[in-house]
C-alpha cells in the first residue's frame, strides 16, 4: 500500500461517517455527532467516494466469517447428512469456490454506484417490487443473528461450566454487537480489523492441544456418500454464503470509484473463501472425532453444544483455554454487528418513509427481534441451522441471476446507467413486474428440485437438492423476455 493510499484512506476513514447529506447529519443528537454514521439509504455522490483503503473490505468479510458459525456449519455434513470427512471437505471446498463468486462480484458495485445493495436492486426490481427480496433478506439477516447469538451464548455458558445460563450469554453477545453496529461504518471497519487475531489464536491453540485427536475423524463412513447427501449438504454450504449478495455493496459504497473492480473482487472473495473453507472443514473434523474423545463428547452433549465442544478442545490449556473460549464466543459479534448494520437499510427500503428515521435506530430494532427468538430456539440449534440455511439460498440465487442479467444484458455492464437521481423516484425506475415474475416462474421448477429434511420434491428426491443451481439460470432466462416486454410497455406509458 502506497503512502498516498494510506494517508488518503486514513483521512476518509475519519470523515466517512459524516459523509452524508446535511439534512441527515443535522438530525443526529449533538452527543452522537462525533462518531455515528448518519447516512442511511441515500447514495454517496461521486465526489464523496474517496476512501482508498480498499483492503478494509477483506477484513470485513474475513472477520464476519472467521467465527464459530462457520465452524458449526461444517459440522452439518457429518451430523445431518452422514458424510465422512473427505466428502464433507470436498463439498465445502468446491461449492464455496463457486458460490462466493456472486457476493464477491456484487462488492464491486459499491464504488461504481455509491449505493446500498438493496437500493441498487431497485434498478431491476423497481421501487415497490424490491420490497419482496427485502423481506426475504431481512428474514435471512435476522436468522443469521439468531444463530450467532445462540452460538455465542453457548460458548460463554460453557466457560462457567453452565453456571451462567445460555440466556445471559445470548444477551451479552447481542448487546455488544448492537453497540458496534450502532456507530456505523467507521467503527465497524475498526472493529473488524481487530476482532480476528484472538480468534485465530484460539483455533491455533485448540489445534495445538487437541489436534492429535482429529485422527479419529479420518475413519471412512460405513456407507459411501450418495448424490442426494452431497447435493443436499451443498445447498446448505451455498445458502451460507450466497445470501451475502444482498448486502455486498453496503460495505464498499464509500470507496473511490476509480478502483479496479478486480481488486475489490479479490479482496472480497478471499475474505469469504479462506475463513469459511478452513473453519467448516475443521468443524467437520471435530464433530466426527468428538464421540471418540470423552471430554469432547461430554462438552458437545446430546443437544449439539458447539460452544461446549470448543471449550472441551481448549480445556487442556487451563484458564488460558477458558479465556480463548470467551474470545471465540465474542467472535460472533463481528458477524452480528455487520448484519445489524445492513438490517438498518433493509428496514428503510422495506418502508420508504423509514428513510427519515436515523439509521442507528434500526440496530436497536434488529437486536430486539433477535434476542427473544435466540433465547426460545437455543436448545434446537441443529434443526434451526439446517432448516434456515437450506431455505435461504434459493431466493438469493434467483435474485443474483436477475441482477446480473439486468446489468450485463440490458445495461451492457455500464454503471453510468444507474442514475443516482432516480434512486428514490418510482416512475423513473423499472416497474419490477419482470423481476418478480422471473423469480416466481423460476420457483415453479426450483420447488420440485428441493431435497431437504423438511421437504423433498419429485426431482430432488431422485437427484439430490439442485434447487439453488437451478434458480440462478432459470431466473435469468425468464427475466430476458419479461424485462423486454416491461421496457416496451413502460416506454409507451
From TrEMBL:
Membrane topology type: Multi-pass membrane protein
Single GO term (MF): transmembrane transporter activity
InterPro entries: Pur-cyt_permease, Pur-cyt_permease_Fcy2/21/22
Keyword terms: Membrane, Transmembrane, Transmembrane helix, Transport
Region (Disordered) residue spans: 1-27
Biased composition (Basic and acidic residues): 1-22
Record carries keyword Transcription regulation: no
Transmembrane segment boundaries: 58-79, 85-106, 127-146, 166-188, 200-218, 230-255, 267-290, 323-348, 360-382, 388-410, 431-454, 466-482
Keyword Membrane attributed: yes
Gene3D superfamilies xrefs: Hydantoin permease
GO cellular component, one term: plasma membrane
Pfam family, one: Transp_cyt_pur
Compartments, record wording: Membrane
Organism domain of life: Eukaryota
Family under the similarity heading: Belongs to the purine-cytosine permease (2.A.39) family.
Name this polypeptide is given: NCS cytosine-purine permease
Organism: Boletus reticuloceps
Lineage of source species: Eukaryota, Fungi, Dikarya, Basidiomycota, Agaricomycotina
Amino acid at each position: 500500500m502506497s503512502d498516498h493510499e494510506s494517508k488518503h484512506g486514513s483521512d476518509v476513514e475519519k470523515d466517512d461517517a459524516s459523509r452524508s447529506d446535511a439534512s441527515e447529519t443535522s438530525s443526529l443528537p449533538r452527543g452522537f455527532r462525533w462518531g455515528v454514521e448518519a447516512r442511511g439509504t441515500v447514495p454517496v455522490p461521486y465526489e464523496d467516494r474517496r476512501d482508498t483503503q480498499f483492503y478494509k473490505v477483506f477484513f470485513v468479510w474475513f472477520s464476519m466469517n472467521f467465527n464459530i458459525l462457520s465452524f458449526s456449519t461444517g459440522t452439518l455434513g457429518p451430523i445431518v447428512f452422514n458424510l465422512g470427512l473427505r466428502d464433507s471437505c470436498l463439498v465445502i471446498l468446491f461449492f464455496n469456490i463457486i458460490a462466493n463468486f456472486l457476493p464477491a462480484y456484487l462488492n464491486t458495485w459499491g464504488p461504481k454506484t455509491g449505493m446500498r445493495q438493496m437500493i441498487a436492486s431497485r434498478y431491476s426490481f423497481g421501487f415497490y417490487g424490491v420490497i419482496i427480496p427485502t423481506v426475504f433478506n431481512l428474514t435471512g439477516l435476522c436468522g443469521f443473528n439468531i444463530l450467532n447469538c445462540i452460538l455465542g451464548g453457548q460458548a460463554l455458558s460453557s466457560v462457567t461450566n453452565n453456571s451462567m445460563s445460555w440466556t445471559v450469554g445470548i444477551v451479552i453477545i447481542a448487546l455488544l454487537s448492537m453497540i458496534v453496529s450502532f456507530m456505523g461504518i467507521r467503527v465497524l471497519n475498526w472493529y473488524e480489523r481487530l476482532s480476528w487475531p484472538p480468534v485465530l489464536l484460539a483455533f491455533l491453540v485448540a489445534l495445538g492441544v487437541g489436534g492429535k485427536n482429529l485422527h479419529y475423524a479420518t475413519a471412512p463412513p460405513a456407507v459411501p456418500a450418495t448424490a442426494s447427501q452431497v447435493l443436499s449438504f451443498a445447498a446448505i454450504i451455498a445458502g451460507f454464503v450466497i445470501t451475502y449478495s444482498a448486502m455486498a455493496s453496503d460495505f464498499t459504497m464509500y470507496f473511490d470509484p476509480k478502483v479496479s473492480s478486480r481488486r475489490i473482487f479479490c479482496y472480497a472473495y478471499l475474505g469469504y473463501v479462506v475463513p469459511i473453507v478452513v473453519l467448516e472443514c475443521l468443524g467437520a473434523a471435530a464433530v466426527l472425532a468428538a464421540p471418540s474423545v470423552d471430554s469432547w463428547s461430554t462438552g458437545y452433549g446430546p443437544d449439539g453444544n458447539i460452544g461446549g465442544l470448543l471449550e472441551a478442545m481448549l480445556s487442556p490449556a487451563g484458564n488460558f483455554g477458558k479465556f480463548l473460549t470467551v474470545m471465540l464466543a465474542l467472535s460472533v459479534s463481528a458477524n452480528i454487528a455487520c448484519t445489524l448494520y445492513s438490517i438498518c437499510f433493509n428496514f428503510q427500503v422495506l418502508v420508504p418513509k423509514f428513510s427519515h428515521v436515523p439509521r442507528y435506530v434500526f440496530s436497536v430494532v434488529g437486536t430486539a427481534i433477535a434476542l427473544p427468538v435466540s433465547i426460545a430456539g437455543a436448545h434446537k440449534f441443529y434443526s434451526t441451522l439446517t432448516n434456515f440455511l437450506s431455505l435461504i439460498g434459493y431466493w438469493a440465487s434467483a435474485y443474483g441471476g436477475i441482477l446480473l442479467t439486468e446489468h450485463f444484458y440490458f445495461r451492457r455492464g455500464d454503471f453510468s446507467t444507474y442514475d443516482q437521481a432516480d434512486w428514490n423516484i418510482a416512475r423513473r425506475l423499472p416497474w419490477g413486474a419482470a423481476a418478480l415474475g422471473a423469480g416466481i416462474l423460476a420457483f415453479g421448477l426450483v420447488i420440485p428440485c428441493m431435497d431437504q429434511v423438511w421437504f423433498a420434491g419429485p426431482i430432488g428426491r431422485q437427484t439430490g437438492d439442485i434447487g439453488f443451481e437451478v434458480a440462478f439460470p432459470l431466473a435469468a432466462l425468464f427475466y430476458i423476455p419479461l424485462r423486454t416486454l416491461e421496457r416496451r410497455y413502460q416506454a409507451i406509458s
